[in-house]
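thread: overnight batch results

M.L. [08:02]
morning all. the overnight job finished for the chain we discussed friday. pasting input first so we're all looking at the same thing
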Amino acid sequence: MPALPVVSDDELRVHFCLEAVDRVPGDPETTAFKRKARLHQALWREARKLPIGTQPMRPKVGQPSRQLGSRLDAEFARKSGRNFLTDAALKSVRRRIADHEPHQTLDENRLYCDLLSSMPMCFNLFGELQADLDLSDRAVHAWWPDVPGRVRAVRFEWSPGRRLPDEYLENRSAFDVAFELELEDGRRGALGVETKYHEDCKREKAPNDDRQRRYERVTAVSGALSPESVRGILGTDLQQIWLDHLLALSMPQHPSGVWAWTGFALVHPAGNPSYARAADRYRQLLEPGATIRVSTVESLLGGGVLPADAVKAFSERYLW
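M.L. [08:03]
and the structure it wrote out:
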């Protein structure tokens, strides 16, 4: 694929609305990646003559708004489904929207309109797998060979249970996609996956005392991290990765005994330095025997599993 053209900041502001969130203080490498990703999405949209979107995504009458090149027009986006690259991905989106989960945080405007969002990217990357479980099983075991069992379901924006007292994490956490597994002994397992694209790994506010105690109990039972490591994660840029991982770790601890095995995978583009560095730092904190799977988008596309036309469309859309 040809390299992106060199575009000045002034040109970006005029044509594609360079956003403040693309600047990461003290991290010029991540800033450059985020700017290129935004420009790439705007150029992808323009090359296909898709109508430009706005900030906010659904402007209110009488309120200020502006065009934003990395978004699709809201009405067009919902009617056409053009944020999604294949029929299978769009069908997965519509199936998920129809299957409402209690306390879910699914933002449909972002899903349909935002070209940069990792949520539609997740559907575009894994959407082919939901309707073909044989393909899904081959993909999971090609990408992560240590995962046991056989894939029995693919679930997007899924949690085993949100805000349930004394169950899981008691919060609204969810996996971007989860592969439910049938294990050899007939029990169930799951691999939860978090996907990132344009995002950088940001420092987060530490949880309140009650939540923190819950998270620390789950971590202690899992044995994945020491109490000292947890204290070093709280309120930092590693907190989100920890909580995503912790949702998977909480599942075998559920009193129902439903989940006999769980794992967690983080997927991001090779060019996203923020998440590459954060994943490496997080893995260094894990206790011996504990693990998370970290994969680049490029490694999944190059695995020889996904249909060639889907790989081509995805690469044109998200990589450069």
